[in-house]
Design goal:
Helix content is 29%, strand content 17%. The chain contains 16 helices and 16 strands. This is F-box domain-containing protein.
Length: 523
């Protein structure tokens, strides 16, 4: 969805703290004692809001708001600016609260995502009536409780069956300019009210990944209706974000050839999942030139994600001056060769298909030209005969500016020391590391020890996520995890070693170890 604060640059924390010092006698204004709380209340409200708006972690914003009742009331617009209801229980509890107990909170919501019956955990949950969810949102909108809503996304098991949801949001939420929905096994209604919006800034349509037994219910030739394209191409000239996504696991393949007809001067974010650019009357070769012209006509693009299907153009061939603002790219290994803006790309994702050792060596040659790269997500599939240390060392040496690495290895088990040794010998200073790998079933690792060893090897590490499975996998979004560990690296102990804490969640989704946010470390 489109960010309302895209134009803002982060305000340095040091500047915020210096402003706080001018208004309070106690530098440690956010500690938990009552005297500090009194000093905190003397800090100007606009400075507190500035701090909260520039904290990326929602839990830290909550911790800051819990400093005092005064601060909590001040930060309500920040706390509720973006609401993502990620489960049926969250949908039910939050919507009932907004309808009955706290109707005042709805006026702060600018971005709302509802995910009834979302399969996020392995624990069985009672199905939630999605019609009730839709009608609850209709009641909120018609009663004027969502006046500032700018972005709405529906992620249920099926598109809303009652079209009044979309017509009500369009009528009662004058600031709403970004909408989206997922699609279940039923066909898309061409006359849906979802396609009646005008002047959109963002639009999202995703296909639900369905169980195999549901495939028989899929339409034989699922098509995107003309009404959708008319809304986007003819009536949304100021479109900034477009996402049409189909999972690799889905047998549904949408024809997205008409996207090349769009001309959106403000388009910043384009994401095309595993869709097709070659229908019955055309081929992949015939679509390469129109699609390259389309990309060249959108110089404001900052984020681009392309699919991996054989029916989509495999190579990118663009003039040297094209895509000058591109900073984030996701696609195939073959795609990155033709990108005209390699030295300025900061985020790269190569997770559509696993890379062999031979293909990785080719990719590393390209990575060496990406001097600004700080975030890399990559999926490797190496055989048992591979020199894993050499592979990891070559990868790390090819992108020495990395601060975030998300590495998935779906081959036979390898020794962890091969990765830690490569990391120790490199110049990479990682801040976050996500590692997904296959492990022997008879050798379940101690993830805390692994995280501690990684933090010792790379002192800059602050967050480590470790995932392992006993079997290989075909798709990254369907890995049969045996265990997942999330770790935070705190300050060093007196002995010099890192203090690594596992991040565990209670039912309320708050961390066991978290305390009210303190800014004393910046002062």
């Amino acid at each position: 969805m489109v960010s309302s604060k895209h134009w803002q640059s982060p305000l340095p924390m040091s500047l915020l703290v210096s402003l706080i010092k001018q208004h309070t006698g106690d530098w440690r204004v956010f500690s938990s004692n009552s005297q500090s709380n009194q000093n905190t209340c003397r800090v100007p409200l606009d400075i507190i809001i500035e701090i909260a708006e520039r904290i990326n972690n929602r839990e830290d914003i909550l911790s800051l708001s819990l400093t005092s009742a005064h601060i909590h009331a001040t930060l309500l617009p920040v706390l509720y600016a973006s609401v993502d209801l990620r489960s049926s229980r969250m949908c039910k509890n939050t919507l009932e609260m907004l309808l009955n107990r706290r109707p005042d909170l709805g006026r702060h919501i600018r971005r709302l995502v509802v995910r009834p019956n979302h399969r996020q955990s392995q624990q069985p949950t009672k199905p939630l009536d999605e019609d009730w969810v839709a009608q609850s949102i209709v009641k909120l909108a018609t009663s004027g409780r969502l006046p500032r809503l700018t972005s709405f996304f529906w992620d249920g098991s099926e598109m809303p069956q009652d079209d009044t949801l979309w017509s009500t949001l369009r009528t009662c939420c004058p600031e709403l300019r970004s909408v989206g929905s997922n699609v279940g096994p039923k066909s898309i209604k061409p006359d849906s009210q979802l396609f009646r919006f005008d002047d959109l800034a963002g639009f999202t349509l995703t296909a639900k990944t369905l169980p195999d037994e549901w495939d028989t219910f899929l339409p034989p030739e699922p098509e995107l209706p003309d009404q959708l394209w008319d809304m986007l191409i003819e009536r949304s000239k100021r479109l900034e974000q477009l996402r049409i996504d189909v999972s690799q696991r889905s047998r549904r393949v949408w024809d997205t050839r008409r996207v090349v007809q769009g001309r959106w001067p403000q388009l910043r974010d384009l994401e095309l999942g595993d869709c097709s650019m070659a229908g019955n009357g055309s081929s992949r070769i015939q679509m390469e030139t129109p699609f390259m012209r389309f990309l060249a006509a959108h110089p404001e693009l900052e984020r681009l994600r392309l699919p991996s299907l054989s029916s989509f153009p495999r190579a990118i061939i663009l003039p040297h001056a094209s895509l000058p603002n591109l900073r984030e790219f996701s696609g195939n290994a073959a795609h990155i060769k033709g990108l005209p803006n390699l030295p300025r790309i900061k985020t790269l994702s190569l997770t559509h298909q696993p890379l062999s050792e031979k293909m990785l060596s080719v990719v590393c040659g390209t990575l060496k030209h990406m001097k600004s790269l700080t975030s890399l997500s990559i999926w490797l599939h190496l055989d048992a005969q591979s020199d894993h240390y050499a592979v990891f060392r070559n990868l790390l040496d090819s992108c020495r500016g990395l601060t975030h690495l998300d590495l998935a290895c779906s081959e036979a088990p390898w020794e962890m020391i091969e990765f830690t040794s490569a990391l120790r010998g490199s110049r990479v200073e990682l801040v976050t590391l996500n590692l997904t790998r296959v492990e022997r079933s008879a050798n379940e690792p101690d993830l805390h020890k692994v995280a501690t060893r990684l933090a010792t090897t790379n002192p800059s590490l602050r967050k480590v996520t470790l995932r392992y499975s006993f079997t290989t996998w075909v798709f990254l979004d369907s890995i049969p995890y045996q265990r997942v560990g999330n770790f935070i690296v705190k300050d060093r102990s007196k002995q010099g070693g890192p203090v690594v804490l596992e991040k565990r969640y209670k039912s309320s989704r708050r961390c066991f170890y978290r305390r009210p946010l303190s800014l004393s470390k910046y002062i």
